[in-house]
TrEMBL record:
Membrane topology qualifier: Multi-pass membrane protein
Coiled-coil ranges (or none): none
Source superkingdom: Bacteria
Protein's name according to its UniProt entry: Transporter
Principal subcellular localization: membrane
GO BP: protein import
Ranges of residues in domain MotA/TolQ/ExbB proton channel: 44-126
Length: 135
């Protein structure tokens, strides 16, 4: 199997696309609040509204990756039972590699999101302190 066919096989997975969708939605919302919005009372209210929801979405990424691993391993074991054991070593190892990819993807996607979340929470806290000190 070539590298391109392995990559295309990985993209033919609903959980991979769910991980990508949740991660990019979270990144987009965090970046829009962090970098592209003017700091004022409405901005602080929007940030406080979104911070807990975004933290929950980011926390779901490793769990979605684990779900992908479990479903991939189940399909590999199902393949093994249908084909009477370990006849096709390459197919089985490829199935396990595909299964582990979703966990890796979930962990890789959560780290930048948590960093952005922490930066936004810090920016909101600093703005609130500066606003309180100014009055």
């Amino acid at each position: 199997m070539t590298d391109i066919s392995i990559f295309l096989k990985l993209l033919n997975n609903t959980i991979v696309w769910t991980l990508i969708g949740v991660a990019f939605f979270s990144y987009g919302k965090l970046l829009s609040l962090l970098a592209f919005a003017t700091c004022n009372t409405q901005w602080a209210a929007r940030c406080n509204y979104w911070l807990s929801a975004l933290k929950t979405l980011l926390a779901s990424l490793p769990l979605l990756g684990l779900l992908g691993t479990i479903s991939g391993l189940l399909s590999t074991f199902n393949f093994m039972s249908v084909n009477n054991g370990l006849d096709m070593q390459e197919m089985i190892s490829g199935g396990i590699a595909t299964a582990m990819f979703t966990t890796q993807l979930g962990l890789v996607f959560v780290v930048p999101g948590l960093l952005l979340h922490t930066a936004l929470r810090s920016k909101v806290s600093n703005w609130q302190v500066n606003t309180a000190c100014a009055h």
